[in-house]
Design brief:
The chain is of the alpha/beta class and about 280 residues long. Helix content is about 50%, strand content about 20%. The strands form two sheets. The protein has a five-stranded mixed β-sheet, sandwiched between helices. Helix 1 runs parallel beside helix 2, helix 5 crosses helix 8 and helix 10 packs across helix 12.
Length: about 280
């Protein structure tokens, strides 16, 4: 049996490949070790994943491939590894970054630039076997250009600076029933501020016909291409591929900005898990 996981900051997609090559799917919350502890990882999987697995197999034994955001640093990777080893003691476990997972899913055995545009963002140049070069992954405060958190942060900054048009400002407060103090508290004092900020990207998408919000997203993507993609290209054109909900749902704007920057666009998919599953099936 093979168990494959693609974990972002918000959610984790799981696929179980049984001995007959049947594929079953499950979901849990995101398991980024920068935001939750090893014990919280175990609690989430005990509550959400293991009961589902037990419907198929009483005791999973096999290979577990975990691709996760926050797993680049050895110290953080160890948190995830130790948690999974306690839950699956009889399995061979491999922990890799979500970036490598995205590259394998998007590029397969070909070279190219692979990006993740979801709650956070990250990009790399993949040589067809491994990540040859990666953009700086600085998180939602210092980086994550073009991500849901970046779009949400830009929206909230414009809102609190009273730069939004009166119509959009009214729609925002009518929708979320919040105020400045609650927003500041959620960003600076509550857990998962990146998820909180990213949640507002849905509001932007639903009102994308508003020129101000369209321009807001386009400018976030311009920053993303300038900070991440063009630094990886280094004057040699490579096809750009992308996965993640933000890249997928705002794909029309993403493609237009890429065209501005003379960047060749390949695949844009919402999630890499299906292609990752086929990768580990050897197909």
């Amino acid at each position: 049996m093979i168990l494959v996981a693609d974990s972002g900051s918000t959610k984790t997609d799981w696929r179980l490949i049984d001995d007959k090559k049947n594929i079953l799917q499950f979901n849990t919350q995101g398991l980024n070790p920068y935001f939750i502890t090893g014990q919280e990882i175990e609690n989430e999987l005990n509550k959400k994943l293991l009961p589902q697995l037990k419907k198929t197999t009483s005791n999973f034994k096999g290979e577990l491939f975990f691709y996760g955001s926050g797993c680049g640093a050895e110290k953080k990777k160890k948190i995830v590894s130790q948690s999974l080893m306690r839950l699956f003691p009889d399995s061979k476990i491999e922990i890799q970054t979500d970036m490598l997972g995205a590259a394998r899913a998007l590029c397969g055995k070909n070279n190219g630039i692979a990006s993740i545009l979801g709650t956070g963002s990250n990009s790399c140049y993949y040589d067809g076997r491994s990540i040859a070069e990666q953009s700086a992954s600085l998180g939602f405060i210092l980086g994550d250009e073009g991500s849901g958190a970046h779009i949400g942060k830009t929206l909230i900054t414009a809102l609190l600076d009273k730069e939004l048009t009166p119509g959009i400002e009214k729609q925002f407060f009518d929708r979320f029933k919040t105020n400045r103090d609650e927003i500041i508290d959620a960003v600076y004092k509550q857990p998962f501020p990146n998820r909180y900020l990213s949640s507002f990207s849905k509001f932007v998408f639903q009102n994308i016909k508003d020129q101000q919000l369209y321009d807001l997203v386009a400018n976030c993507f311009r920053t993303f291409f300038d900070k991440q993609i063009l630094k990886l290209d280094k004057g040699t054109p490579h096809t750009f591929h992308c996965t993640g909900s933000v890249g997928f749902y705002f794909s029309n704007i993403l493609r237009r900005v890429a065209e501005e920057k003379n960047i060749i666009v390949g695949q844009i998919v919402e999630s890499p898990i299906a292609a990752l599953t086929l990768f580990h099936l050897g197909e």
